[in-house]
Amino acid sequence: MQFQLSEEQLMIQQAARDFAQQELKPGVIERDEHQKFPVEQVRKLGELGFLGMMVSEEFGGSGLDAVSYVLVMEELSKIDASASVVVSVNNSLVCYGLEAFGSAEQKEKYLKPLASGEIIGAFCLSEPEAGSDATSQHTTAEDKGDYYLLNGTKNWITNGSTASVYLVIAQTDPSLKHRGINAFIVEKGMEGFTIGPKENKMGIRGSDTHSLMFNDVKVPKENRIGENGFGFKFAMKTLEGGRIGIAAQALGIAAGAYELALAYAQERKSFGKPISDHQAIAFKLADMATKIEAARMLVYKAAWLKDQGQSYTLAGSMAKLYASKVAMEVTVEAVQVHGGYGFVKEYHVERLMRDAKITQIYEGTSEIQQMVISREILD
Ligand code: CAA
Ligand code: FAD
Q1: Top mutation candidate among 133, 204, 361, 371 for ligand 2, by most atoms within 8 Å of CB
Q2: Domain-by-domain residue ranges, the chain?
Q3: pLDDT score for 363
Q4: Does residue 240 carry a catalytic annotation?
């Protein structure tokens, strides 16, 4: 058993750390306050190869492993989870989905610009009445021969207005239930495709979340991903890896808040000594550090299993369930360590606390992770 990162992984981790400090930290409070998407920062992330990290070089990606990917997610999320969710969706949902299951033509046309960061993508499964219960898709894709006619509404779509390419899950044959679901590549600008207003959110406010409306959108047959009826399995297989990315985001949010609390506790004095000298604060820091380390082990292990070509369904769900819980617990304590200063924006921890909550909701709520884990261990 090895607990050491390779030279290359350490370099990538450092590059992401530097990027987060130099490019994400300036303006992060304003972007959160004004719900401003990090346009320029995402462009630079693309130039660095962080938007197609695991895509093979043949398709314009960086050809890196999943461990490197979670290291980058962790470092970016310490500073700006609104930017890191763009990285997560583009890498582990959109690029992975296309590379693993797309046709040669789809990879050439869509994966290449997505992996190089020229454009970004979105993954569209959730609907107003189908979130956790993802098999009950109401969006329909009627087979019309050369094309499918897409009708319905998708909800909460990350990169909703900034994406150029959307992977959309829809029901083709309701009589077959989940086996009649398909996944399609939809381009922005296709006739009948409209984007709803931006959601005003509690956290990850810089991220761009929208509902999407499809009204008789003609999607060419060659834009269906995989065999007829493969759409639900496509979504599940893709989300397995996505959950590792969100687990790494949760880990980074927790680690970012902990680092701020650790520094603050050694500077701030009360009763004639640094507050870290009070056992109540020192023990909080000890608990935070321990939980973060445990979460890190789960996240890295899930990524490592993926790299080894082994099953990571169980490990990915465990990592997401635990790391997101730790993100909530640690960020709440980080605010507490900061006292009143923690309650104002300038000290960053209140934002990290608000951002932490989403990691227990998207890409499968904590209850859904418990469902996946319990099924795996009872099977
Ligand atoms: N891999 C492959 N196939 C899978 C699978 C997996 N991991 N999990 C399930 N399936 C298959 C099953 O084998 C079954 O197919 P067959 O009948 O052909 O064997 C089919 O899918 C249905 O499976 P279940 O009976 O287990 O389905 P279920 O209705 O009980 O639901 C669920 C399973 C795990 C709860 C699923 O609905 C789920 O994951 N829900 C959560 C949805 C979710 O995570 N949404 C995230 C949206 S994206 C997002 O959020 C992005 C973002 O924020 C940034
Ligand atoms: P519901 O499914 O209605 O769940 C409500 C509550 O009931 C939850 O606590 C849930 O855990 C619980 N629950 C439901 N069923 C069960 C059960 N069987 N057992 C126990 N508890 C249960 N989706 C996308 O497709 N693409 C995206 O890019 C995307 N980005 C998102 C970004 C943001 C900011 C947000 C808020 C959401 C995003 N989502 C996205 C949607 C997200 O994946 C869903 O919100 C999530 O899957 C939960 O679905 P829901 O909101 O419908 O909640």
Answers
A1: 361
A2: 7-120, 122-231, 238-378
A3: 98
A4: no
**ipTM topping 0.95:** yes
pLDDT over 70, % of the chain: 100
Domain 238-378 top-level CATH class: mainly alpha
Q: Which atom of ligand 2 is nearest to the CA of 132?
A: 2
Task: Give me the mean pLDDT over the 166-175 stretch.
Answer: 97
The CATH superfamily holding the domain 122-231 is: Butyryl-CoA Dehydrogenase, subunit A, domain 2 (2.40.110.10)
Tell me which residues have their CB closer than 6 angstroms to ligand 2.
89, 122-126, 131-133, 156-158, 201, 204, 209, 358, 361-365, 367-368
- Under CATH, which architecture does the 7-120 domain have? Orthogonal Bundle (1.10)
pLDDT for 272-305, tens place per residue?
Answer: 999 999 999 999 999 999 999 999 999 999 999 9
User: 379: pLDDT confidence band, cut at 50, 70 and 90?
Assistant: confident
Give the count of beta carbons closer than 10 Å to the beta carbon of residue 126: 19
Whether the domain at 7-120 and the domain at 122-231 fall into the same CATH topology? no
> What is the model's pTM?
0.98
